[in-house]
Amino acid sequence: MNVTVFGTGYVGLVQGAVLADVGHHVVCVDVDADKVAKLEQGIVPIFEPGLETLVKENAAAGRLRFTTDAAAGVAHGTVQFIAVGTPPDEDGSADLQYVLAVAETVARHMTEHRIVIDKSTVPVGTADKVRARMSDVLAERGRQALTFDVVSNPEFLKEGSAVADCQKPDRIIIGTESEATEELMRELYAPFNRNHEKILVMDVKSAELTKYAANCMLATKISFMNEIANLAERLGADIEMVRHGIGSDPRIGYHFIYPGVGYGGSCFPKDVQALIRTAEQIDFDARVLKAVEARNHEQKTTLFAKIHRHFGGELAGKTVALWGLAFKPNTDDMREAPSRVLMEALWEAGACVQAFDPEAMEEAQRIYGARDELTLCGTKEAALKGADALAIVTDWQSFKAPDFELIRQQLSAPVIFDGRNLYEPKRMARKGFTYYSVGR
């Protein structure tokens, strides 16, 4: 099948590469000429395990192409994916200008029937807006007789495992009321639906809400667990014991109940805010979602509070080694990352940071540039040298079994602030560390 994907960001690039890998002929359209030129050379602008290989192999095979020519993209694909960004507006609602711009582009250039698929995370009612914008443009062209359909097909990719999630999805949501469109979508996704039935067909608005509901549910679990962790700390309980106790209940499970320093990334913060704003627009008070958001904002400050308290508020002139900049492992994404909240608070208090992350060093350099208070180190060991304490923000595998004797030698004092509960408190005490963690 001929497929066009508008947008070569995280979702669009993964979706396009995986569809090409099963034999579809995919053209990815982007307005950024420099980005397109790099992709044509096999240079992938984001870190995602397996993605670069997938792009190079399918481009070499002729199944995956990149262009800035929107008209060629519209002409190519019976299916037109909209996979552009929906950044939060000033009030937190999703900004649909890029989604609607693609809808207008498709309507401007189409000469025969097209299926337009909302892959971007968009508020309930977006398909109606896309449909209305396309109809207006076709009317301007005097081509009202041209037919099209708009489908909601939300993505459920996790950064760090997006390729695998796309190749082996746990569900494929298709929002349409057209039997012909449903049949075409089933054909598109047939290679991913062979093991057992994964396709769920529903009305468009239900599909749009499903995406937000899924992310907001996961964010709720994280914020709830962080709240219980704060209680555990004050009550003298161990949140890790509590986690095992509740996770063994199959109604709860172990996923997304790890206490920490708050969620970040491009999805959860934005989607929680957007659904709150959607609720406000229909005069509904989304109390649970507001509490989830508030708890997460506060949770991101807890590691700094522990550091501030340990040093008696005297942080000027101190140096903190920081392990982890990305909001989660296996990505270089620092959007809404807890590390940023911690570093900026430390700088405000007069402290310096020596940081290391396996993948996010260039991103940190891009965000913060050159500044005296930040040293980006080539290894996790280099970040320790002469620091007054170690703070762990991201639970990369390489941080889970370090050389503790080397840490003792490199730090000016054996102090660790662990925002991910990577180590056992009793073991750390036996090794002579002053050890702070979350909820223990």
What does this structure look like?
α18 links the parallel β13 and β14 (434-436). The longest helix has 32 residues, at 204-235. α1 packs across α3 (51-60), α5 (97-109) packs parallel to α6 (126-141) and α9 (204-235) crosses α12. The protein has helices at 10-21, 33-40, 51-60, 70-76, 97-109, 126-141, 162-167, 179-189, 204-235, 239-247, 268-281, 287-299, 302-310, 338-348, 361-368, 380-384, 404-410, 425-430, and strands at 2-6, 25-29, 64-67, 79-82, 114-118, 148-152, 172-175, 199-202, 319-323, 352-356, 374-376, 389-392, 415-418, 434-436. The protein has 440 residues and is of the alpha/beta class. Helices cover 45% and strands 14% of the residues.
